[in-house]
Design a protein that fits this description.
The strands form three sheets. The protein has a seven-stranded antiparallel beta sheet. A five-stranded mixed beta sheet has the order 10-9-8-11-12, with helices on both faces. Strands 13-14 form a two-stranded antiparallel ribbon. By secondary structure, the chain is an alpha+beta fold.
Length: 425
């Protein structure tokens, strides 16, 4: 499988200028190619192929108006055309129903807060013996290495984010030799807001609420930005401060997700999670808290780490009644309001914690062996529920018989004789 490793770059003024020139050239090539295809579509002409776009790019570089395109590496310009092909392919696949619906490719703007260029092996970029990243027509960039790459990278992407930070993102191939030793534990995970994750073994991980804790600092930065004159240098500086404040929140949230997902992957052979409707929950009054939790990013981390280290990740349906079923006897007791955190099962009398009970049911729905609360993974045979027997769901059959004046089944009496004796003539 392919993984991406990102490292921070420390650049000088000249290197920033060279990267800015490369970002601009890539943007111009992308927009020119998109304009050619849109004009062909409007005129009813056939779809312009990538080979034709590449020929036009070569011819354009030889003209006096676009001679400055030759000042950057030709590989990044060709990769810009590949990015356009990928955007069109994803758009066509969305029209055919192969992926979620997305819009058609749009023109890039120089005011976009995120800029990137990609170098493949054809660009002959390298990592110097001193640990610097050498890029053609840009120079040697200082990289803050936080760990070693597991293998030789196949490409590198230089990214400038909205907070005016530069990163080098390497794509590497990893093999099955990274699989962890097999272990026996399995766990079910119930994601929430009060507690970010509740495990089927009874552990509860509190939600850090990074955005809520940083709201005061964010409000101050955004208030200062709103007071700056549009188009001024001070407004641009204030915008960067706001972007850095938001980037700090995103970084600490990502770090929390990585630490927790790695811990779960190392400790358990199989992990079960619930497929949550995050888009639907993000349209409710809990939208800010839902986005602050970042459930989708956490589950995606679990997915790729499980595939990388030889673990099993199981996703159960979002309509499983995990909060309505008793994890001890398996009786469904109906929905409960959110303020009810502890409840007593009416069938077996077990006192259940709402979140832990849901986590155990998540593991049961996935077929995992969970020993928490000594609950059975596959409950044994149970008698029919009272609603199925035809009596009131809150009244046992013996009470119904006594209210009707009919004595119940006595000791030593079989069902056939009881029915014959009590059937009207």
């Amino acid at each position: 499988m392919q993984l991406r490793y990102s490292f921070r770059l420390c650049l000088g003024a000249g290197q920033r200028a060279a990267l800015a020139k490369a970002f601009g050239c890539v943007r111009v090539v992308f927009n020119d190619a998109l304009r050619v295809r849109e004009e062909a579509r409007a005129a009813g002409l056939p779809f312009v192929t990538s080979a034709e776009l590449s020929k036009r790019l070569t011819a354009t570089k030889n003209t006096p108006e676009r001679a400055w395109l030759g000042e950057v590496s030709s590989v990044v310009l060709q990769q810009s055309l590949r990015d356009l092909d990928t955007a069109y392919r994803n758009f066509f696949d969305s029209l055919k129903g192969r992926r979620p619906r997305i819009s058609a490719p749009r023109f890039k703007s120089k005011r976009d807060t995120r800029q990137s260029i990609r170098f493949t092996a054809n660009a002959r970029w390298s990592i110097t013996p001193g640990g610097k990243l050498r890029l053609p027509k840009i120079g040697d960039l200082t990289v803050k290495w936080s760990r070693m790459l597991p293998s030789t990278p196949s490409s590198v992407t230089v990214v400038r984010d909205s907070a005016d930070r530069y990163f080098a993102s390497f794509v590497v191939d990893t093999g099955p030799e990274e699989a962890l030793p097999k272990t026996t534990p399995a766990v079910g995970v119930d994601l929430g807001l009060t507690h970010f994750a509740v495990l089927s073994d009874g552990r509860k991980i509190d939600s850090p609420r990074f955005l809520r804790r940083a709201e005061k600092r964010l409000k101050k930065a955004q208030r200062a930005l709103s007071r700056k004159q549009k188009g001024s240098r001070n407004r641009d500086k204030a915008r960067v401060k706001v972007a850095r404040a938001h980037a700090r929140v995103a970084d600490v949230r990502r770090e929390f997700h990585h630490r927790l997902s790695t811990q779960l992957i190392r400790e358990n052979q199989a992990i079960a999670v619930e497929d949550l409707a995050v888009k639907g929950l993000a349209r409710t009054r809990l939208a800010k808290s839902v986005h602050d939790a970042g459930w989708s990013a956490f589950v995606n981390m679990l997915a790729y780490k499980a595939a990388r280290y030889g673990r099993v990740l199981i996703r159960i349906g979002r309509f499983e009644p995990t909060s309505q079923v008793c994890s001890q006897c398996g009786v469904k007791d109906g929905p409960k309001p959110l303020h009810i955190r502890v409840w007593t099962c009416g069938a077996c009398g077990a006192v259940l914690d709402r979140d832990i009970n849901a986590a155990i049911n998540v593991a049961k729905a996935a077929g995992l062996a969970v020993s928490a609360c000594r609950a059975q993974v596959r409950p044994g045979l149970l008698p029919a529920q009272r609603s199925e027997a035809g009596t009131h769901p809150k009244q046992p059959a013996q009470l119904v018989w006594e209210q009707a004046g009919i004595p119940g089944l006595q000791a030593g009496e079989d069902v056939k004789s009881w029915t014959t004796a009590r059937t009207p003539a």
